[in-house]
């Protein structure tokens, strides 16, 4: 009787299909490992990098209004550039090249910030330009990454993989956030806060560079179709009966855009309010952000069960209602315990809102149109962020950056969110429900939730 190892060797020699399957499995495993490495490094970059842009603006001597604009206006550049990304992908020669180029450019965007922190000088125009490059490189590759990763990750076990990947990114984001906060607290006590920012931005650049190397070493999947080809197919294959889904999606999009305007009316200005008006130190500031982030991550599982049992529409309603009073609650008191409670409630409400909206959005859209329409959604979303932030900046510029003006912003934001619920009342929401969908955390924002992007391939039908 032949040994088992010899039988296996003979099978590989006599059956080439076995070789192909083994090679394909090995390639897939390595790709999954590299994707996990990318998630870890990307999460660390988010935690210690872009999350501190607004705080750095104040530290380097810019105004409170400028600090809020830094956290919002640059996103519009990324939203616009991703509209032309299909042609850029075709020109550059594929998804992977486009994604890796974006990751490298995003890494390089941190270097002038590190230099500015080291020298202690940076104008608002230059900061807006650097932040715009950062967000352009990040958001413009989002739809391409969604399509590319779907080709990389095997269908079997896909939901489990993306669940593990999202969890790893969240852990690394939280770790980066906390470590960075402690670094800034220590350096500020040594009168070296700007040196601390310089070190953090340099570390963020290196983490994103390592992330880019993981992406570069990830091999392409068997289907490597360009965005342009996909769009041509979608138009040709679009059946008449799917148009009703578009109308429902537009209603949901209108609600999101309107809500985003009023959320961003106050959202970008919570950082200058905490660090400028309340004069919190970095440990308190980071602690409040961390509470919202943790409560959001933890409550996702709870809202996921609600969505599976009762439908995503109910989760979206819970989230939409929960977001209404959050901004105005900051008017009640500046007591730390009270603000901590608000942040915990904020995380819970934001988890319901984001999960409910994305589940509804993806249920409404036909599967083959999701990437293209997600691009349009991202543009509308960033446009709404820009409009809301500019309106908030105008109010602060006209009445001055006083506590009373901030209270007006918070109250107006809550009032607008309440009115937006009227748009949701008229929306025709589907009754079926996806089981789950993974998220990528792109930034952490106090008072305005985190900037997240859905992972299309993780949607579990």
From TrEMBL:
InterPro entries per the UniProt record, alphabetical: MFS_dom (IPR020846), MFS_trans_sf (IPR036259), Sugar_transport-like (IPR052528)
Residue ranges of every copy of the Major facilitator superfamily (MFS) profile domain listed in the record: 246-461
Alphabetized PROSITE patterns for the sequence: MFS
GO MF annotation, one: transmembrane transporter activity
Ranges that cross the membrane: 39-60, 66-86, 98-118, 124-148, 168-186, 192-210, 252-270, 282-303, 315-332, 338-362, 374-400, 406-429
The keyword Acyltransferase belongs to this UniProt entry's keyword annotation: no
Domain of life: Bacteria
Keywords of this entry: Membrane, Transmembrane, Transmembrane helix
PANTHER family cross-referenced by the UniProt entry: INTEGRAL MEMBRANE TRANSPORT PROTEIN-RELATED, MAJOR FACILITATOR SUPERFAMILY (MFS) PROFILE DOMAIN-CONTAINING PROTEIN
Protein name: Major facilitator transporter
High-level lineage: Bacteria, Pseudomonadati, Planctomycetota, Planctomycetia, Pirellulales
């Amino acid at each position: 009787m032949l040994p088992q190892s010899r039988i296996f060797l003979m099978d590989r020699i006599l059956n080439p299909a076995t070789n192909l399957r083994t090679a394909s499995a090995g390639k897939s495993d390595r790709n999954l490992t590299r994707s996990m490495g990318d998630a870890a490094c990307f999460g660390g970059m988010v935690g210690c990098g872009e999350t501190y842009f607004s705080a750095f603006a104040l530290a380097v001597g810019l105004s409170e209004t400028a600090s809020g604009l830094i956290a919002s206006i640059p996103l519009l550049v990324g939203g616009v550039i991703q509209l032309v990304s299909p042609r850029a992908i075709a020109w550059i020669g594929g998804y992977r090249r486009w994604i890796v180029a974006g990751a490298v450019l995003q890494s390089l965007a941190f270097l002038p910030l590190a230099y500015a922190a080291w020298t202690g000088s940076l104008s608002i125009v230059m900061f807006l330009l650097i932040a715009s490059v950062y967000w352009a490189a990040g958001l413009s590759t989002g739809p391409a990454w969604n399509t590319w990763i779907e080709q990389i990750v095997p269908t079997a076990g896909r939901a489990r993989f993306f669940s593990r990947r999202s969890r790893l990114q969240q852990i690394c984001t939280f770790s980066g956030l906390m470590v960075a906060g402690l670094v800034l607290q220590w350096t500020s006590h040594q009168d070296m806060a700007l040196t601390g920012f310089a070190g953090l931005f340099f570390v963020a650049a290196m983490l994103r560079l390592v992330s880019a190397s993981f992406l570069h070493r990830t091999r392409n999947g068997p289907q490597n179709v360009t965005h342009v080809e996909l769009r041509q197919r979608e138009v040709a294959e679009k059946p008449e009966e799917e148009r009703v889904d578009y109308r429902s999606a537009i209603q949901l999009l209108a609600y999101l855009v309107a809500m985003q305007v009023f959320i961003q009316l106050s959202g970008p200005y919570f950082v200058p309010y905490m660090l400028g008006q309340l004069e919190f130190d970095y440990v308190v500031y980071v602690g409040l952000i961390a509470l919202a982030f943790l409560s959001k991550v933890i409550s996702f599982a709870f809202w996921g069960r609600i969505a599976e049992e009762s439908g995503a529409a109910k989760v979206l309603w819970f989230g939409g209602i929960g977001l209404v009073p959050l901004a105005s609650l900051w008017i009640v008191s500046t007591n730390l315990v009270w603000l901590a409670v608000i942040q915990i409630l904020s995380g819970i409400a934001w988890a319901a809102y984001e999960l409910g909206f994305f589940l509804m959005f993806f249920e409404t859209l036909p599967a083959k149109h999701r990437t293209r329409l997600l691009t349009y959604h991202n543009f509308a979303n960033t446009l709404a962020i820009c409009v809301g932030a500019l309106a908030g900046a105008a109010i602060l510029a006209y009445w001055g950056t006083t506590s009373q003006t901030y209270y007006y912003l918070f109250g107006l934001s809550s009032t607008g969110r309440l009115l937006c619920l009227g748009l949701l009342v008229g929306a025709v929401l589907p009754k079926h429900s996806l089981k789950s969908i993974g998220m990528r955390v792109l930034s952490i924002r106090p008072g305005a939730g985190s900037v997240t992007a859905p992972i299309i391939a993780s949607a579990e039908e």
